[in-house]
Amino acid sequence: MNSIFFNTQHSPIGAFASFTLGEKGAKGGLAVELGKPADQNVFVGLENANGNGFSLLPFFEITEDDSKRFDVLATTKTKAAVLRPFKDSEISREFSPCRDIWRAGDLEFRIYTPVCPAPDPAKNSKAEHKLAYAPTLAVEIEVDNRKGKTARRVVFGFQGNNPFRQMRRLDDNARGKFVGIASGSTGIASDSPGVYSSLGFTADQILDEQHPFNLAFGIGGMGLLISEVPAGKRVTLNFAVLFYNGGIVTTGMKASYYYTRFFGDMEAVAAYALAEFRALKGRGDAFEKRFQRSRLNPSRKFMLAQAIHSYYGSTELLDVEGEPMWIVNEGEYRMMNTFDLTVDQLFFEMDQNPWTVANELDWFAKRYSYWDKVLFQGDKREYPGGLSFTHDMGVANHFSRPAYSTYEKTGLDGCFSHMTHEELVNWLVCGLTYEKQTGDRGWLKKSRAIFEQCLDSLLKRDHLDPKKRDGVMGLDSSRCSGGAEITTYDSLDVSLGQARNNLYLAVKNWGVYVGLASLFERLGDAKRVGVCLAQAKRGAETICASADKDGLLPAVLNENVQSRIIPAVEGLIVPYCLGMTEELSEKGPYGTLIAALKKHLQAVLKPGICLFPDGAWKISSTSDNSWLSKVYLCQFIAEKILGLAPKSGGFEPADKAHAAWLLDPRNTYWAWSDQIVTGEAKGSKYYPRGVTSILWLAR
């Protein structure tokens, strides 16, 4: 890796909260419901052995003494303890999905992230729910003072920057069980012997304080937890990083965080976390072992770990008037359950907690679905359309009104237009995968009518005349009002942005028809099986017929758009998730399509087409905006389904280039980001979608 100083999100499950750390300076900190790092000073350090000041990890900046706002005529300078960051050469970092360990001198700072299944609220025990959803992180600081000749102080704290909440001590309500500091909905607590809390205007003033009475000073915005490690001793101190946002936290629908069922306030979280510290620390042990046993190259290990961290930073489990609701917020944009992200986070959620997929689908069906009309391009007449789903469910904890998203506008043919067909396909991809992999017959029974309605809607968006259907989307939603539908690739050019006749969406369509045929066959619905198989055949033929003499497929079919795209193969993931190996074989019923897609991908993975000069993948030949989540997905398809990975080293040169994007100094502040334009993160920052990389573990 280029540098160890990159931000990473450390988050409890379902709390929409993050302890972000790694970038130098005041670039991390503790936050709830924020689409970026908190930009706080974080102090983690140790008194120097010679007693001359403190050395700290470099996550702070020296700030102006805020006491000047009060003592406006003060002219004397306050004596300050010497605070310096460790030199870069003194610091090392060990990073994985569940561990972030910093070492410097005699100090070791360990953050534990819970990568573990989120238990189904309808099942499991209260104890399991409390442990999994406790809005807290286990943190350890180990100090080795065995060679020291004097006691040395160790510090952990932060500078609150919440304009509505002052820094406070948790000790006041802890009844002697623990000590802690907090600012608004974030805090840190410890019950390790000898740890005490302190507040003040600056860290150096706190560390120079001679009167213990003054440590409870309530005006300063700085809070530290301090302990003293005796000479000749090696000590490990336990800390719980805390998040708590009580009461109704949403508008549009009344909802509170699910964890408030078990914890009445931050102090209750602290008491639980410290009492159950060992269990809290071990929440990610099983996944960590699985990760460490994997044979992924170092670049992939880094990207997978970073992506998982950012995914959890966007997760939110709400209690909507007694009903659970799983939400994944859209990173910096904070849109709620953006459906074209849900379909890519599907693989991770099916791996960890499949119930969340059913929960998302059910909420889309009952609150965020709608019926529309359809139009031929250039024709103002409206025809019967069908069922589809919104782009999202709201933004920044505001639920949008039923049947409407916060994102989609009318009269457009680019960014912010409707994604009606894409979200229809996405509901089917998620629904088919969930049903097949879980065998949840109860869910299928209540959802069968939706599958049937979705099929009817797909057909009408192809062509109104069954004899003229070609298996590809051809009509736009009436909600576009003269504009045109777009895809998840909303900020790209027509090669991937336009939904109608798009190659990427055509192959995804094909995968859904194949999956629906299998579903209806198991349901004994021969008529719908026949319809789905006919549509799959038509779609495959339409796609194959568009190939040029070199085997290249146009990004948009039949519209003279000659851009070339890697996500042409993306739809192959659908039958893969359904275990339909024959349909993915060149010797199977769709062998001609599989061969055509394989030939296309081989042809475009070349410099000047869909490879950048450094070997990174360029998802469209006519755009420098490449999306890492989609690259990960298509890499998996190329390797696992099409068998195109080079025998020596696989796609490792590309992996190194992709990891270098995330580690570019322009990007490290934002943890994991998706949209990378010629090496720089331009959008979709602090983003959850990178967990498509979980597919790399499916070996």
In short:
The chain is of the alpha+beta class.
Walk me through this protein's architecture.
- There is one protein chain.
- The longest helix has 22 residues, at 441-462.
- The strands form 7 sheets. The protein has an 8-stranded antiparallel beta sheet with strand order 7-8-9-10-17-14-13-12.
- Strand 23 and strand 24 (398-399) form a beta hairpin.
- 30% of the residues lie in helices and 20% in strands.
- Helix 7 (339-352) packs antiparallel against helix 8 and helix 7 (339-352) packs parallel to helix 9.
- The radius of gyration is 27 Å and the shape is elongated.
- With 699 residues, it is of the alpha+beta class.
- The model has no long low-confidence stretch (mean pLDDT 96).
- The chain has 2 domains: 8-67 and 79-286, Distorted Sandwich (Beta-galactosidase, Chain A, domain 5), CATH 2.70.98; 294-697, Glycosyltransferase (Alpha/alpha barrel), CATH 1.50.10.
- It is built from 17 helices and 28 strands.
